[in-house]
Amino acid sequence: MDHTKINLIVRLQHLDNQIESIISLQKGLPEEIDALDEDVTFTTRQIEARKKIAGEHAKSRERLNETIRHCRSKIQTFKDKQTLARNNKEYDALSKQIEYEEKEIAQADIQLQDISHTEQKTLEMQAKGRQLIAENRYDEISEDMMPDDVLEQQLEDLKDQVKQKKEELESIIIESAEEVSELEEKIKKQRAVVESESKRLLSKYDHLKSGSIQNAVVKLHRQACSGCNTRVPTNRHTLIVQGGFYLCESCGRMVVHERLFEEAAEAQD
């Protein structure tokens, strides 16, 4: 086995590890931001839905009150005409018109009462929610119980958190941009070297990293693969100590002696 080729792939892994180390400084911030953005979207939709319902109620109330005013005006007109009716037939016809308008008013009143009942129920639900909040019983609060002002405050808090997390992430990216750029250039050159010396090793390396494995090459640690902690057969230790590698039977990683990583770090310096 050509141990020089193993050294080359270890150096590539060492560089990739450095990139991963920088990315880890982001502390899961991209995922946190995505989750917070989802919360902002969900809360915004809740608020918009409530405002839409409130707006529809206001329009309906205005329309129904206008209907009542219009019907009352017509009733008064019909009553005035009744005083001038020339016979019972005209009087009865006007009475039927008055009766019709009164039914329209009654129906409008029922709809207004329904709106008021719905709004009152909403207020009662939110009052219950406010009480549960005061008692720190958040797990018992349903979406409908959350008071409007609390929901609005939650949205503002979420937006502030998103802004803060994005600023934190941007700061990390800016601070590490130059180092990442240098490492990416080194990785590009190292990949070219490995490819020219051993396409098979590079192919194996890329295959491992194409899955969920970030570190395709790992150290032998306490007689085990440091990637998955599976014990390495004793008869393979000599090969590893001599500078070769062992393919872990459990995770498939290439297990090498830690000395090779130390040499890779020294070579980079």
Write the layout of secondary structure elements.
Blueprint: H1 3-24, H2 29-82, H3 88-134, H4 148-197, H5 199-209, E1 217-221, E2 224-225, H6 237-241, E3 246-247, E4 254-256, H7 258-268
Parallel strand pairs: 1-4
Antiparallel strand pairs: 1-2, 3-4
Task: Give a quick summary of the entry.
Strands 2-1-4-3 form a four-stranded mixed β-sheet. With 269 residues, the protein is mostly helical.
What does the model show?
The protein has 269 residues and is mainly alpha-helical. The protein has two domains: 3-24 and 175-268, Helix Hairpins (Orthogonal Bundle), CATH 1.10.287.1490; 30-164, no CATH class. Helices cover 74% and strands 4% of the residues. The chain contains seven helices and four strands. Strand 1 (217-221) and strand 2 (224-225) form a beta hairpin. The protein is rod-shaped, with a radius of gyration of 38 Å.
